[in-house]
Specification:
This protein has one domain: TIM Barrel. It has 12 helices and 14 strands. The strands form 4 sheets. The protein has an 8-stranded parallel barrel, surrounded by 7 helices. Strands 4-5 form a two-stranded antiparallel sheet. A two-stranded antiparallel ribbon has the order 8-9. The protein is globular.
């Protein structure tokens, strides 16, 4: 799977990922009104607005980017109707040729992780048949329960040619409360990185592993050390743009071959129409605003690389 991701990055010359994390506040009024006129101010109406919003964003940017990252919580808040739109969005993006990273942050005891893996990146058996559930290419995984909570995901990566990104050093301000704690003189995130490299050796795909790592752009010195610690691990890098990470902070997430990382931006792109620099597009051309924001992000990152 990671080789497919690399090929898409090389084809587009864009090591970037669009986070499809829709909040109703990001959706233009005309989209909301249309959905509410049809389904009322209901969970179904909200989910329909999200779907219409996502579809235009994907149509406007799919030729520029290798991947998207829908955050499942933004869909779960609307219950089953939201999950239907999550699945619909995943399917639509894959039809467009995009790599889909399901930001689900799963991880539990072994049997539960096996069920999560089957539902998101594997297949579930029903009698004599098997079915793909959400059918994403990658998912994010929480390693807090250790090897028996992660191994089922690694097994699914190898069996179904899929990938995972394991949380190592996240971009949020309070990440250090646990991740930076010293254990025998080493921060916890370094111990997690050691395990990610170990787990990744069981699912290699060329020079890189299908087992990747989430490493935030907001801590560049830590990303420098982690890049050396996990040279064959692909990084999913959140924190660029709205969270304060700058292009210069990304340099150390990449290897000397120019590969090794894909950088995510969510509201900086999907809500670009609300930002001052894209105000000329207006709400009626929110897809065009997102497209311009993607082009600006690509240029900004490639300038540094």
């Amino acid at each position: 799977m990671v080789q497919r991701l690399i090929e898409k990055i090389q084809d587009t010359k864009a090591p970037v990922c669009v986070g499809l994390d829709p909040m109703l506040g990001y959706i233009p009024e005309q989209v909301l009104e249309k959905a509410f006129d049809e389904f009322g101010e209901t969970l179904k109406g909200a989910a329909e607005a999200v779907w219409q919003f996502n579809r235009e964003l994907v149509d406007a940017t799919a030729d520029l980017i290798p991947a998207v990252k829908p955050q499942i919580a933004m869909y779960e808040q609307f219950g089953l109707e939201g999950l239907k739109v999550y699945e619909r969005t995943v399917r639509y993006c894959r039809e467009k040729g995009l790599i889909v990273i399901g930001d689900v942050k799963r991880g539990d005891i072994g049997s539960t992780s096996a069920a999560y893996a089957a539902g998101h990146i594997g297949r579930v058996k029903v009698g004599g048949a098997s079915f793909a559930g959400f059918d994403t290419d990658y998912i994010t995984v929480n390693p807090y329960l250790g090897t028996d909570g992660v191994k089922p995901f690694v097994d699914a990566c190898s069996e179904y040619d899929r990938g995972i990104f394991v949380l190592v050093k996240t971009s949020n301000p309070s990440s250090g409360e646990f991740q930076d704690c010293l254990i025998d003189g080493r921060p916890l995130y370094e111990l997690v990185a050691d395990k990610v490299a170990e787990w990744g050796s069981a699912s290699m795909d060329g020079a890189y592993s299908n087992v990747g790592a989430v490493v935030g752009a907001t801590y560049p010195e830590m990303s420098r050390a982690l890049r050396k610690q996990m040279p064959r691990t692909y990084f999913l890098v959140p924190g660029y743009g709205a969270q304060g990470g700058a292009a210069e902070d990304l340099r150390h997430c990449f290897n000397e071959d120019g590969l090794g990382a894909i950088v995510n931006s969510s509201r900086g792109i999907i809500a670009a129409w609300k930002k001052e620099e894209y105000a000329d597009f207006g709400a009626g051309r929110f897809g065009e605003a997102a497209r311009q924001a993607v082009m600006d992000m690509i240029q900004d990152i490639n300038r540094v690389l």
